[in-house]
Design goal:
Number of helices: 13
Order of helices and strands: HHHEEEHEHEHHEHEHEHEHEEEHEH
Radius of gyration: 21 Å
Strand order of the largest sheet: 1-4-5-6-7-8-9-10
Helix content: 25-40%
Strand content: 5-15%
Shape: globular
C-alpha cells in the first residue's frame, strides 16, 4: 500500500511539473506538419504556434505595434494597465516593442529589467506579442551604442572581447528562461538584434565592420543562444534600414535562412513631409514580402514612425497607405516610443492626429490587442478571419 501511495504521489508530481511547462512535442515534426521551418528546430510549442499564426495572419491582416507602450507615455509613467494607445482607442497595441539594453557588461538585475519582464509578461497574458531590439553599448568602451569605435571583430571568436560578449549572451539567455506565463510556459519573444545595420550610426553599422564580420556576428549570436544556451522561445528578426532598392541589396549581409525567421525593415526617412517617399516604402515592403514568400519566412515592418506626428492625417494618408496594397503581406508594423512631447510617435489624448488615428484603428486590415485571435495555444483554424471580423465590427460600426 505504501508503495502505491509513493508511486501515486510521484506520478502526481511529474504530471504537475509537465502541466506547468510547455507540452513535450517533437518540434521538428510539428513544424514540418505546419509547413514552417523556424531557425530553432526545437522551439517550444507556443513559439512555433506564434510563428505559424503570424505567417497566416499576414496574408490578410497587420498587427499594430508600439514600443514601450505600457511602460510610460505623455505625462505619465508606470501606471497599471495604461498606454497612450489605450487612452485614445480603449485597447493596447497588439504588439509591444521592448529593448534588451539592460543586457550590458557586468549586468546587475535592476528595477528597469524587472519592470520590463513584468510588463512583457502582462502583455503576453492579454494576448499581445513581444518583440525586443538590443541597443547594446559598445563592448570596447562601454559607452553608448552610438559610439562607433571599431569593435565587431573584437567580439567574434578569437577576439579579445569574445568572452565578454558571451557573458552578455549568458545574461540574455537567463532573462529568456525567466519569461514564463502564469502556467509556467516560456513566453515567445521576437528578438531583433543589430537593427539598421546598413546605416552607420551604430557600432555594428556598415562602415564599422565588413560584410563577413557582420554575418559572423549574427551567426555567432544565434548559435550561442540557440545551440549552447538552449534558448527555445526566440524568433529571430532581420531588419536593415531603408537603404536597399532590390532583393540583392537587401540580402547583402543576410546571415542565412537557418539564422533568420522574420524578414523586416526599419524605415523613418522615406515618410517625407511631401509624401514623395511613400511609393518607395511600398516597393520595399513588396520586396520583403516576396522574399519572405520565397524563403517561407514572415515579413514585417519592424520599426517606423513620424516624430511628433506633425501631419494630423498621417495615420491613414501615409502610414496605412503604404501597407494597404494587397501585395504587401506583413505580420505587423511598429511605431517607436512616446518619451515626451518633443519625442513621440503615437497619439495621446489631445493630440491633433487622434481623430485620424481612430479612423486608422477602425480599418478592417489593422489589428489591436482586443482584435487578436489566440496566437499561442494552437494553429489558427480556417474560420479565424470571421472571428476577427466579429471583433472588429463593434469598432467599425461606432
Amino acid at each position: 500500500m505504501k508503495i502505491k501511495i509513493i508511486l501515486f504521489v510521484t506520478l502526481s508530481i511529474i504530471i504537475s511539473a509537465c502541466s506547468a511547462q510547455n507540452k513535450m512535442i517533437n518540434s521538428k515534426e510539428y513544424q514540418a506538419n505546419l509547413g514552417i521551418n523556424l531557425s530553432d528546430s526545437f522551439a517550444t510549442e507556443n513559439t512555433v504556434n506564434l510563428y505559424y499564426n503570424l505567417k497566416k495572419l499576414s496574408e490578410h491582416k497587420i498587427i499594430f505595434g508600439h514600443h514601450d507602450a505600457t511602460a510610460y507615455g505623455i505625462g505619465w509613467q508606470g501606471e497599471e494597465n495604461r498606454s497612450d494607445i489605450k487612452d485614445v482607442v480603449g485597447t493596447h497595441p497588439g504588439l509591444y516593442g521592448w529593448d534588451f539594453m539592460f543586457i550590458q557588461p557586468d549586468r546587475i538585475v535592476d528595477k528597469d529589467e524587472a519592470n520590463i519582464r513584468k510588463l512583457s509578461i502582462e502583455a503576453h497574458e492579454r494576448g499581445g506579442v513581444n518583440t525586443f531590439c538590443w541597443h547594446l553599448n559598445n563592448p570596447a568602451t562601454d559607452n553608448s551604442f552610438y559610439d562607433t569605435t571599431i569593435v565587431v571583430r573584437k567580439i567574434l571568436p578569437g577576439g579579445d572581447l569574445y568572452l565578454k560578449y558571451l557573458r552578455m549572451l549568458d545574461y540574455m539567455a537567463e532573462f529568456a528562461n525567466t519569461m514564463k506565463d502564469s502556467k509556467g510556459n516560456l513566453i515567445p519573444i521576437i528578438f531583433r538584434p543589430f537593427h539598421e545595420f546598413d546605416g552607420s550610426w551604430f557600432w555594428w553599422g556598415k562602415r564599422f565592420c565588413s560584410r563577413e564580420e557582420f554575418i559572423e556576428l549574427w551567426q555567432t549570436t544565434v548559435t550561442y543562444l540557440r545551440d549552447k544556451k538552449g534558448v527555445r522561445n526566440f524568433i529571430y528578426a532581420f531588419s536593415p534600414d531603408r537603404m536597399f532598392f532590390s532583393e540583392a541589396e537587401f540580402l547583402d549581409r543576410y546571415p542565412g535562412d537557418e539564422y533568420v525567421d522574420i524578414i523586416g525593415m526599419d524605415n523613418y526617412w522615406d515618410f517625407t513631409p511631401d509624401g514623395a517617399g511613400l511609393e518607395w516604402i511600398t516597393r520595399k515592403l513588396k520586396i520583403i514580402t516576396e522574399l519572405a514568400n520565397k524563403k517561407n519566412k514572415v515579413a514585417a515592418f519592424t520599426e517606423t514612425g513620424s516624430e511628433k506626428i506633425p501631419d494630423s492625417t498621417w495615420w491613414t494618408d501615409k502610414f496605412f497607405k503604404v501597407m494597404q496594397d494587397d501585395s504587401v503581406k506583413i505580420a505587423y508594423a511598429m511605431v517607436w516610443r512616446n518619451a515626451h512631447k518633443g519625442h513621440h510617435y503615437a497619439p495621446f489624448p489631445g493630440h491633433p492626429s487622434v481623430p485620424n488615428f481612430v479612423e486608422f484603428f477602425k480599418k478592417e486590415k489593422i489589428l489591436f490587442e482586443k482584435h487578436l485571435p489566440d496566437l499561442f495555444t494552437s494553429p489558427l483554424h480556417e474560420n479565424f478571419i470571421e472571428e476577427i471580423k466579429k471583433k472588429k465590427m463593434i469598432d467599425l460600426s461606432e
